[in-house]
What does this fold into?
Amino acid sequence: MKYNHKNFGFSLNSKIPLDNFLEKALYEPKIGYYNNRFPFGKDGDFVTSPIISNLFSEILAIWIISVWEKFEKPKIFNLVELGPGDGSLMNILTQTFKRFPEFNKSVNIFLYEKSSLLIKIQKKRIENKHIKWIKNYNSIKKGPVIFFGNEFFDAIPIKQFTVNNKIFLEKCFSINNKGLKETYKKASLSDVSLIKSFNILNKQNFVEYPKLGFKELNKILKKISALSGGVLLIDYGYLKPFNRNTLQTVMKNKKVKMENLNNYIGKVDITYLVNFGLLKEFFEKKNFKVKNIVTQKFFLETMGIIERAKIIEKNMNDDQKKDLFLRLRRLLHKDSMGKLFKVIFAYNCKKNNFLGFN
Ligand SMILES: C[S@@+](CC[C@H](N)C(=O)[O-])C[C@H]1O[C@@H](n2cnc3c(N)ncnc32)[C@H](O)[C@@H]1O
It folds into this structure.
């Protein structure tokens, strides 16, 4: 369908804050990016770790089981995948869980997904009758709960502000008959005071603020506070803010210039780099513990991904081995996903020293 501002519910000449604009561009039913295209893989627009290698998902399965053990093997253990994409990660998780019958009997699995197109794809891929797709966490009532998401947080639209002489201006888009135009408006007092409440955002002249992402996390933290547990997030991001616009638009595994967005709205993925320092401060303000933020390389290697690869290569021919280690390199190398991707786990229980972070 050709882009038309009316289809997205944008009114002419009004200033739409960046996060509201992106929310429609990405998630508007039928025409938003995640509801009208299949984004994943070599023939899609981008590739994620579970699609690169099943080893990523197997290792995450082992980490989840180690958390269940840390909680002293409760008979009811809830697991919520945030933004399961094409279902690749959960498909391997459920297959791996079958090899651990005691855990498999205790676990209740929930998938939290907002794209109706992706829900259909997930239902086809994941063969497990015991999985529930949910739109909120009300049905999770008993037992600890672990939430986890790979590239979930960076898919939730952010706000951006420039700060000049202590005046905050919010980035917006306005739409006229020629198309989209980037513009600014004075930031609301409530947003300014939210931003100022974070030490890490002080003295920045360009601020990215994940207001909608924090809204999602608040619902998650509320559930964890009621039942105990934690939330694990894996994303592309940085530890200290660097006064830079980190939005990126990707189509067919290539970056697209933001200026050309007009031609591509609904056809490109638009993400940003996650500010992990800000996430940590957010969790700690809510009295959650965060031990370390680690790189994907550290997390996967500490959990034994290389040892696992060496076991499975024994049954492979030379081409399969080459492919296995090329994929592993992509997950682990510092110039690929190893260093840029970070892992954070926030939890609210007395337990400490979860595997993967020490
Ligand atoms: C970049 S994709 C990552 C997919 C998958 N986790 C992977 O690693 O391949 C982001 C996923 O999060 C979902 N998503 C984004 N915002 C969401 C929200 N607020 N609630 C539920 N799902 C959301 C998207 O529809 C998509 O499935």
Notes: The chain has a mean pLDDT of 93. The pocket of S-adenosylmethionine is lined by residues 34, 40, 48, 50-51, 83-85, 89, 112-115, 118, 150-152, 155-156, 216 (CB under 6 Å). The chain is about 35% helix and 25% strand. The CA atoms of residues 211 and 287 lie 19 Å apart.
